[in-house]
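Input/output pair, single chain:
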Amino acid sequence: MHLFTTATSTEEAARGARVAVLPVGSFEQHGDHLPLTTDTIVACVIAEHLASAYGMLLLPPITVTCSHEHEGFSGTVSISAQTLIMMVADVRSSLDRSGIGHLVIVNGHGGNYVLMNIVREANVVEPRLALFPGRSDVDLARERAMMATTTSADMHGGEWETSILLHMYPDLVRPTYTQNDHDAPHRPHLLITGMRGYTSSGIIGRPSAATAEKGKAALDSLVASFAETLTVLTT
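Output:
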């Protein structure tokens, strides 16, 4: 499987997709066991699975987004929320000119809060955008994968992300994932302090509980639960 789409224009013309899927990731720290591109990889993996299962146009990812809460950790790079808004708007305009009126945004980075506002505003008149996966989709996927952690406790670089990479790109996971657990269940001032206020390693979660089998089960669950989102978006 390729991380980015390798489809040709001719192949997409034959597909005739009416829905596009846009992976949105980030370029930010994930401790010492996962790469800076982790969120982009996760978003691309989910988007590729959805595009393949439901015949959608797979777009290349937005790879640098709103990671300001991770600044202070080496390698992290961010753009403003305003820039992300305009990038999504420009993609939508181009798709509209191509006759594709529906867009699914697959978000791999929880800090991209502005995506929720973009989707709500776009759907005021009629359904045009979807944001996936939602909290309920992730919670169900965790349950089906029999993960040991919750979404809230396993916030960053933990069981969820490490399991998906162990399944899809195990060579990118450093062996230190078995030693990098860090609990910070209560984070009332995260918007003020950023991640530095709650972790020195950059991890909040339990990567030691991750397995490739859990990653596969989680992805399978997301593909299945997406059917309802697609139906609501397009009917």
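The two ends are 31 Å apart (CA to CA). Residues 18-234 form a domain with the Rossmann fold fold (CATH 3.40.50.10310).
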